Amino acid sequence: MDVLLLGASGRIGRRIASELLDRGHAVTGVSRSGEVDGIDDADFVAVAGDATQPDQIARLAAGHDAVASALGPSDDESPDRLSTMLEAVVDGMRRASVDRLVWTGGAGILNVGPDTQLIETEDFPEEWKPVASAAIDAYGILDGVDDLRWTYVAPPALIEPGERTGEYRTARGELVATEDGDSHISMEDFAVAFADELETGDAVHTQLAVGY
Prior knowledge:
Elements: E1 2-6, H1 11-22, E2 26-31, E3 44-48, H2 54-61, E4 66-69, H3 81-96, E5 100-104, E6 111-113, E7 116-117, H4 129-142, E8 149-154, E9 158-160, E10 169-172, E11 184-186, H5 187-200, E12 206-211
Parallel strand pairs: 1-2, 1-4, 2-3, 4-5, 5-8, 8-12, 9-11
Antiparallel strand pairs: 6-7, 10-12
Helix pairs in contact: 1-5, 2-3, 3-4
């Protein structure tokens, strides 16, 4: 599979790229600088691109089998940039006639009880709410797209660098947590789950939550 990976220079993006390459896929990694550190593979090409520009997305996506996204706003950008990027990606994919999209979302949207999202709970950190709300707004746009085979892959409450075990659990629209309420995953195993879904397409038009 030839995959266009947006946000390839980030911590999650680099791990998704490595996981896909280890499985024999070809990856074109997009970053604003055109540089992606830490990946040395003959099937990897780093290119520059602006994910808010649909014409650039269309040009970059052409000839690829799928688009994968690990996009997120940088610390000096408004979280609302997420919606701008999602709209541009969808527009660009339509122009390029590429219909498979796997998008890295946020945990805030996931249900933790009847009619209760994680972002609405008392323990949800205030400093995370702007980005979480922006991710929810972006999902609202994606949810209205019926001509692309999209999947919204959402992490658990905590995601951090760690070990690749290849083990994880999934749920549809609900936060994945242990019986003790612990909700976490390593970035490496998140990349495994992401790549599995990209390959299988088992959760099209779905919020696919992952965790241990």
